[in-house]
Design a protein that fits this description.
Oligomer: single chain
Strand order of the largest sheet: 12-13-14-15
Order of helices and strands: EHHEEHEEHHEEHEEHHEEHEEEHEH
Structural class: alpha+beta
Keywords: Kinase, Transferase
Organism: Vibrio ulleungensis
Helix content: 25-40%
GO molecular function: kinase activity
Protein name: Glycerol kinase
Length: 289
């Protein structure tokens, strides 16, 4: 017996109409409805993935969401209202402005002339786009209070020691495994000479960047560089672009499955940054010298 069922099949086991179950899953924050170019589809949230939701491919009907036959729907949040930035700030003891900036840094919000726009990543984290008097703003599913990436980002922002909060796959373990020995012009310590050259290039070009930033997803994975201006990631590979790598294949799959924008650079390109990188960055709206 298949342990994973489509939403419709799962509804039958619970003696519900499919629409009823979709509504329950949406209220629980497990999925949301995405509309693009006149078409709409159900999209898994990070919370839905945590409770076992997966994308499957059907030979006839295409991509769909499957759930464990024993899916637990956490109704604890259903009686709680969606949270404003102010309410989130009260929870984390931060001002609403700081919360919005942290959500922007995670790539879950984007600043526009009319206010704050919830990105697709923000919707997956539990964001809801709202408008009042031509002003855009966000409301958040209360489960976001427990989202590990937001919790970690807040802790880092207020200066709590992340090593004290460590697990086997935490930042402290990452630092032990990949010791950074090379000091860059802007004070970062990086792992390889190639990363040193790339970091110095970004600094001299005036491109704001973070080094070894954890990706804003459930999996424990770090990028090489993060450019918050465009919600863009840079990955440096210490081998040539035509060399096969299973590690690279796995990482690319992770970026693609989470719709994260990525620029790759290879060892045989590192001496050509002045020619290559400005053109690649321009595609994402970043101007460098």
């Amino acid at each position: 017996m298949d342990s994973m069922l489509s939403t419709t099949a799962l509804a039958k086991t619970k003696q519900l109409e499919a629409a009823q179950l979709f509504d329950q899953l949406q209220q629980a924050g497990y999925l949301y409805r995405q509309s693009t170019k006149g078409k709409s589809r159900w999209v898994l949230t990070y919370l839905g993935e945590r409770f076992g939701g997966q994308y499957k491919d059907h030979p006839t009907y295409g991509k769909y969401i499957a759930w464990p036959r024993t899916l637990f729907i956490d109704h604890a949040w259903q009686d709680h209202p969606l949270m404003t930035a102010t309410a989130l700030g009260d929870h984390f003891s931060l001002a609403a402005k700081k919360i919005n900036l942290l959500l922007k840094e995670l790539g879950w919000l984007a600043k526009t002339e009319s206010g704050w726009r919830v990105t697709d990543h923000g919707k997956r984290a539990g964001g809801h786009q709202k408008k009042r008097d031509d002003n855009d703003y966000a409301l958040w599913h209360p489960s976001i209070q427990r989202h590990p990436r937001l919790v970690q980002t807040v802790r880092e922002f207020i200066g709590q020691e992340s090593a004290k909060l460590a697990t086997d796959h935490s930042i402290s373990e990452f630092r032990k495994k990949f010791e950074a020995k090379h000091r860059t012009l802007d004070g970062h310590y990086v792992r390889t000479e190639g990363e040193l050259i790339l970091d110095n290039w970004l600094y001299m070009a005036g491109v704001t960047h973070a080094y070894a930033r954890q990706l804003p997803i459930e999996q424990e994975e770090w990028c090489d560089f993060y450019l918050p201006q465009a919600n863009l990631y840079l990955q440096y590979w210490p081998f040539n672009h035509d060399e096969p790598s299973s590690v690279r294949d796995a990482l690319l799959s992770l970026y693609q499955s989470n719709d994260l924008e990525l620029i790759e650079l290879f060892a045989d390109e590192i001496e050509q940054l002045d020619d290559l990188l400005p053109k690649r960055l321009r595609q994402y709206g970043i101007k460098a010298y």
